[in-house]
């Protein structure tokens, strides 16, 4: 049965792992980790069940605790957080959701982390043509109160082929189109944490609806779906 609450023991374990990020310590505490991981994954499953009541969620991806250190300066072998993502289903729906649980640095995110080259160009072309609807959606009171400002990496001036003096260049130069909501440890441990996360994800829907419409049509509004 899926659980709806994070136990303090999960955060305490992650704090201890952060202070003892080595294989000997982890192997000695692996049974505890496995038990806590099972509980937290159950919470993510419960969240997905809630989300499926208001969006078409195709699958959940659970991120393993083990770090890939081959190309990293940081050689610590383990992540010090739990994380999972949720993919929206089908070509007609785009974007995804993400939740990371880490002591002192928990956040939910939604949007477009790594849009492919064609999708990124399509978004930029839409914003170049007319960004008014996009701005209307992301500046709505309830939306902004929940998600704050648009986040994500961006180019320094303007993408190739775009005017750096364009009035909407602040949007056009984005490489990622994501929103992030942070949570304190107190909020994470509250009985209604998953409800709050789910409600936050529900409030991102106008943004996803707009982006789905953009990414499934050309600049003339003709459908690209086959």
TrEMBL record:
InterPro entries: CHP02453, UCP028451
One Pfam family cited in the UniProt record for this chain: DUF2461
PANTHER family given in the database record: CHROMOSOME 12, WHOLE GENOME SHOTGUN SEQUENCE (PTHR36452), DUF2461 DOMAIN-CONTAINING PROTEIN (PTHR36452:SF1)
Protein name, UniProt field: TIGR02453 family protein
């Amino acid at each position: 049965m899926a659980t709806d609450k994070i136990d303090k023991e999960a955060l305490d374990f992650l704090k201890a792992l952060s202070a003892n990020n080595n294989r000997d310590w982890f192997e000695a505490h692996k049974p505890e980790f496995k038990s806590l991981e099972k509980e937290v994954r159950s919470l993510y499953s419960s969240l997905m069940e809630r989300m499926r009541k208001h969006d078409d969620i195709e699958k959940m991806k659970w991120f393993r605790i083990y770090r890939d250190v081959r190309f990293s300066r940081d050689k610590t072998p383990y992540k010090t957080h739990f994380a999972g993502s949720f993919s929206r289903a089908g070509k007609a729906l785009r974007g995804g959701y993400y939740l990371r649980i880490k002591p002192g640095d928990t956040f939910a995110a939604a949007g477009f982390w790594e849009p492919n080259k064609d999708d990124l160009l399509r978004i930029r072309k839409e914003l170049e043509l007319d960004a008014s609807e996009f701005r209307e959606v992301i500046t709505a009171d309830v939306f902004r109160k929940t998600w704050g400002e648009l986040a994500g990496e961006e180019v320094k001036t303007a993408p190739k082929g775009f005017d750096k003096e364009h009035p909407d260049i602040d949007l056009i130069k984005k490489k990622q189109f994501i929103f992030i909501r942070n949570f304190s440890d107190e909020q994470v441990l509250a009985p209604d944490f998953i409800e709050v996360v789910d409600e936050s994800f529900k409030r991102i829907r106008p943004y996803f609806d707009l982006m789905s419409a953009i990414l499934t049509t050309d600049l003339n509004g003709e459908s690209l779906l086959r």
